[in-house]
Amino acid sequence: MTERFKDRTDAGRQLAALLTGLRGKDVIILALPRGGVPVAYELARALDAPMDVLNVRKLGVPGREELAMGAIATRGVRVLINDVMVTSGITEGALEEVTQSERIELDRREQVYREGRPAPILAGRTVVLVDDGIATGATARAAIAVLRAQKPAEVVLAVPVAQESVAAELASEVDDLACVRRPDDLFAISMWYESFPAVSDKEVRAILARARAAPAPRSRAHGTTRLPVRIRLHTLLTVRMSTAR
């Protein structure tokens, strides 16, 4: 294994070094909570850009929750990994049960992290989507679907580490991919960090507060958009829209 990151702060700073060309553009940094938030904060500081969160939840296979069979995001997006669904024998009932459970947490995070603030307007802007690592890519794909629906100028996926095969697939779904390390065998994201503690809701809120307090000259007024998702994803995936809450 190559040298590990000291922690998420170190990972964010190394990642920011790959994105210096974005400084001065109309950029917004969106973190996938919770682990992506400390990483994204370092990018926001380096690029002098505003940051926010994009809430997405992984759908784990029942009994093997670490294995993703898909993910859900805001605005009714659900991304499914068909191969995992088939090999794991997932029924429609089991899928709906997991989806509803994760939607409760998704809605909770929207309330806790936004504290009444509307989601940022993304149309015409360069959006940098950040996480602390990518294994299966299901969560990232759901997030990309949400972003594309809002018609940004471009979507940049930025992560410290990602499985090589998954990174190659995701590269075709975004305008640019920034990744410090792309191992053939990821094993687990935590293995690429010397320190990889869980990030709490309190820490997420504190980081977002610090980011809001810092001036971002290219930031725009925040607002909400309600655009339908119409995007073709990887052939192994299915995107389903649902208005059920």
Question: Can you characterise this structure?
Answer:
With 245 residues, the protein is α/β, with parallel strands linked by helices. It has a single domain (8-214, 233-241), classed as 3-Layer(aba) Sandwich (Rossmann fold), CATH 3.40.50. Helices cover 34% and strands 22% of the residues. The protein contains 7 helices and 9 strands. It has a 5-stranded parallel beta sheet, sandwiched between helices. A 4-stranded antiparallel beta sheet has the order 3-4-5-9. Strand 4 (64-73) and strand 5 (77-81) form a beta hairpin. Helix 4 (92-114) crosses helix 7. The longest helix is centred in the middle third of the chain and has 23 residues, at 92-114. Residues 216-245 have low confidence and may be disordered.
